């Protein structure tokens, strides 16, 4: 009797990510890709690029995606999941269109997509679906057979995503001096987005904040259970990049650290629940900028680990693949989820996480390539 994981009808998994520069000469071209169509002058891009130049012009995200690819392939092989894994990016090589072209050349016809964003939002979900539609249109224009692509559900509350973060908080607490550890506040952080995008995220609006709050509650409760200490916590935001007159989610993490210091908090643990891996927003905005603010305040602070290529996350992806494949075969698989919200939808409905300017989006109910 076979105990292999059944991926039918899918014949490939695509890891879809943001991309990042891999050397100083890549920084401005990469930022031009990210900001294309927004009319941002090159001088401003050079200024933003200083964050990357502090790290040799290299974003860690590509190396981290290579580690995740290796972890996924190792887990799939160990659990007899016969599903090749490819990788494509929105903004840098390997570009999404090139990867999909390679997949078509390899004979792939039913593709599952894992985006490196766990939550519902325009930039974290719908925009990736738009990228997929644009890439599929390019293949169609080249006369290539267009594969069907489906996107894995949001995995923000899957145990294989949440539990590694919980362990990261416990490890971070252990780094604090003993005299401040018990009173440390938990500072859950995620990428700020415009209020307009937050309010329209998910099928019914407001999903971005609601999902993060649910994960924060689960982790805070697990840490309380493990340590016996009921710690104050709050969800805060970071990495704002929009025009000053456009309202974005607040408070900013640095402002929150100042507030904690003013309240007499003895220490803080920053918990980047909004990020899959330690990419630039984590290394600069938290490890550099926020830690500098904490040092200036004299507030003991540490930052907990992201999930990255944790084997439990790789196993979670395998579980999500098997779950979605079973659903496509008409079965009713068990769907793992922690917290109060339950498992997310498989197929994004029409109007989910809408763009300011409507564009075709694949891997959803409104896909032109269903």
UniProtKB/TrEMBL annotation:
<keyword id="KW-0479">Metal-binding</keyword>
<dbReference type="GO" id="GO:0004325">
    <property type="term" value="F:ferrochelatase activity"/>
</dbReference>
<dbReference type="GO" id="GO:0006783">
    <property type="term" value="P:heme biosynthetic process"/>
</dbReference>
<dbReference type="InterPro" id="IPR019772">
    <property type="entry name" value="Ferrochelatase_AS"/>
</dbReference>
<dbReference type="GO" id="GO:0005737">
    <property type="term" value="C:cytoplasm"/>
</dbReference>
<comment type="similarity">
    <text>Belongs to the ferrochelatase family.</text>
</comment>
<keyword id="KW-0456">Lyase</keyword>
<dbReference type="Pfam" id="PF00762">
    <property type="entry name" value="Ferrochelatase"/>
</dbReference>
<dbReference type="InterPro" id="IPR033659">
    <property type="entry name" value="Ferrochelatase_N"/>
</dbReference>
<dbReference type="InterPro" id="IPR001015">
    <property type="entry name" value="Ferrochelatase"/>
</dbReference>
<feature type="binding site">
    <location>
        <position position="59"/>
    </location>
    <ligand>
        <name>Fe-coproporphyrin III</name>
    </ligand>
</feature>
<keyword id="KW-0350">Heme biosynthesis</keyword>
<keyword id="KW-0627">Porphyrin biosynthesis</keyword>
<protein>
    <recommendedName>
        <fullName>Coproporphyrin III ferrochelatase</fullName>
        <ecNumber>4.99.1.9</ecNumber>
    </recommendedName>
</protein>
<dbReference type="InterPro" id="IPR033644">
    <property type="entry name" value="Ferrochelatase_C"/>
</dbReference>
<feature type="binding site">
    <location>
        <position position="191"/>
    </location>
    <ligand>
        <name>Fe(2+)</name>
    </ligand>
</feature>
<comment type="function">
    <text>Involved in coproporphyrin-dependent heme b biosynthesis. Catalyzes the insertion of ferrous iron into coproporphyrin III to form Fe-coproporphyrin III.</text>
</comment>
<keyword id="KW-0963">Cytoplasm</keyword>
<dbReference type="GO" id="GO:0046872">
    <property type="term" value="F:metal ion binding"/>
</dbReference>
<feature type="binding site">
    <location>
        <position position="128"/>
    </location>
    <ligand>
        <name>Fe-coproporphyrin III</name>
    </ligand>
</feature>
<comment type="pathway">
    <text>Porphyrin-containing compound metabolism; protoheme biosynthesis.</text>
</comment>
<keyword id="KW-0408">Iron</keyword>
<feature type="binding site">
    <location>
        <position position="281"/>
    </location>
    <ligand>
        <name>Fe(2+)</name>
    </ligand>
</feature>
């Amino acid at each position: 009797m076979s105990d292999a994981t059944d991926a039918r009808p899918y014949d490939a998994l695509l890891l879809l990510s943001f991309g990042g520069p891999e050397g100083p000469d890549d920084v401005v071209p990469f930022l031009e890709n990210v900001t294309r169509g927004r009319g941002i002058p090159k001088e401003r891009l050079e200024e933003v690029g200083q964050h990357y130049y502090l790290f040799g012009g290299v974003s860690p995200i590509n190396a981290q995606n290579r580690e995740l690819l290796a972890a996924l392939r190792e887990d799939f092989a160990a659990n007899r999941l016969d599903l090749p894994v490819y990788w494509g990016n929105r903004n840098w090589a390997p570009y999404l269109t090139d990867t999909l072209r390679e997949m078509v050349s390899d004979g792939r016809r039913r593709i599952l997509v894992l985006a490196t964003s766990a939550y519902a939002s325009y930039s974290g979900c719908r925009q990736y679906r738009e990228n997929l539609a644009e890439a599929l249109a390019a293949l169609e224009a080249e006369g290539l057979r267009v594969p069907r692509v489906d996107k894995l559900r949001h995995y923000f509350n899957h145990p294989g995503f949440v539990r590694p973060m919980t362990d990261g908080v416990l490890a971070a607490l252990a780094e604090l001096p003993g005299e401040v550890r018990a009173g440390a506040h938990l500072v859950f952080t995620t990428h700020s987005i415009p209020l307009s995008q937050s309010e329209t995220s998910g099928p019914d609006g407001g999903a971005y904040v609601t999902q993060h709050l649910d994960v924060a509650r689960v982790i805070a409760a697990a840490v309380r259970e493990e340590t016996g200490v009921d710690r104050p916590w709050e969800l805060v935001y970071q990495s704002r990049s929009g025009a000053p007159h456009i309202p974005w989610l607040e408070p900013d993490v640095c402002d929150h650290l100042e507030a904690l210091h003013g309240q007499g908090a003895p220490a803080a643990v920053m918990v980047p629940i909004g990020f899959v891996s330690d990419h630039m927003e984590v290394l600069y905005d938290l490890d550099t900028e926020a830690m500098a603010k904490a040092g200036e305040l004299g507030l003991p602070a540490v930052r907990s680990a992201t999930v990255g290529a944790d084997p439990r996350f790789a196993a979670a992806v395998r579980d999500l693949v098997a779950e979605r494949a079973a659903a496509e075969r008409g079965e009713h698989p068990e769907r793992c989820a922690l917290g109060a919200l339950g498992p997310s939808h498989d197929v994004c409905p029409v109007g989910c996480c809408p763009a300011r300017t409507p564009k075709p989006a694949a891997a959803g109910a409104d896909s032109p390539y269903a």
